[in-house]
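ok posting inputs for the flavin-adenine dinucleotide job
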Amino acid sequence: MWDFATDAEFQTKLDWIDRFLIEEVEPLDVLFPSVSVVYDTQHARSRAILGPLQDKVREQGLWACHLDPHLGGQGYGQLKLALMNERLGRSLWAPTVFGTAAPDTGNAEILAMFGTPEQKARYLQPLLDGRIVSCFSMTEPQGGADPREFTTRAIRDGDRWLISGEKWYSSNARYASFILVLAVTDPDAPIQSRMSMFIVPKEAPGLEIIRNVPHMGERLELDEATEGYLRYNQVSVPLDHMLGAPGGGFAVAQARLGGGRIHHAMRTVGQCQRALDMMCERALSRRTQGTLLADKTTVQVMLADSQIELEQLRLLVMKTAWLIDHSHGDPRKARGHIAMVKVAMAKTYLEIVRRAIHLHGSLGATFETPLAYMWLNVPTMALADGPTEVHQITVARELLRAHKAAQTLFPSEHLPPKIAAARVRYAHLLED
Ligand SMILES: Cc1cc2nc3c(=O)[nH]c(=O)nc-3n(C[C@H](O)[C@H](O)[C@H](O)COP(=O)(O)OP(=O)(O)OC[C@H]3O[C@@H](n4cnc5c(N)ncnc54)[C@H](O)[C@@H]3O)c2cc1C
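and the output
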């Protein structure tokens, strides 16, 4: 049975979230519209507002909903999370207020899946409590995010691992209490067993932030840059700081990326909805040359296309969430859909935000609406967690795996032999 309804009990929670976001979280967005402040656990003024808001979320039983109950979450599953995240995605601060901000969500998931009891107590618990933030350090300056190109090495030296190399775009490294680092431990091994994952505490000797790189919208003069360009100078960590098995780093990294992509997509639905809501209000408010914008056919086409594309994205996100919930932990079952979502969200976001800015005219081109911040985020959606092309390749490969080559000179849909076969099939009825 296909059922697109939300159960009534959960709907009351969603209604609470809607009110809470408008009344209590959006003021935080406009007071501190900076990713840097969101992750800066030492920023006293924002933290004074954030803490009580997080307590209210906990009281509602809505804290860290991406996690299973034994980790302090609700175990709602991805489908309900999608309904929540499309609301939280409208706001910069909401994911942090609700304990579901990236990259901490993915880092928490792999610590929970692969961590020892000691690692969980020292690193996972404070992360789940919202007391610290963390960083994921995989991409390299020379080879991007292609694991075949990684050169950062970890070499065993007695009872320690020594990590050497450079990592690029390690988000929030400057504020993180620990960093999860993917490093080559066996360069001659096949890619699946060449690397291991390490937990590097921020205070580990040899860890150097070459510079904090500003992504679009972050201002250097305000010291807002959050993308860490890191150098590991023989960074020394004890043997028990490997996360997962030796050579198992690739699998650990893979385990966090799928969830990260779909959660981004859920939040992007919320961003698109916000931009579309703004378009509708504008169309109903602005008069030019004797009519409302809403009465002009060209504007109606923009609105209709945006609504159709958003609904398509939303349904794809929901189906993917449903597939993950029904995959019994087998990541292969939803892989193709996660790749489709990753491609679709970047395209839809680009189109809807572009139209929303256009419809707002000169105001749309200012920093006096949220649209400018969304626009700066547009290229990111097609790059972070892997560029669009990589995911298109995944989709195409999965598709081709379900098909086979034609067995004859002409395609299996070639009509002449089909017509001949149909004549034979119904010959007794076709005879005069
Ligand atoms: C906002 C943001 C946050 C990020 N956070 C983190 C983080 O916390 N930790 C981390 O480790 N990394 C992070 N990254 C890095 C991210 O994973 C990489 O930027 C991404 O995987 C692309 O790698 P690249 O930047 O080296 O681009 P490249 O690999 O150089 O790709 C550039 C372009 O080349 C083309 N291309 C690349 N590969 C293929 C292919 N296989 N087939 C066809 N064309 C291709 C595409 O057009 C692509 O856009 C972040 C990136 C962004 C933008």
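notes: The mean pLDDT is 95. The longest helix spans residues 249-285.
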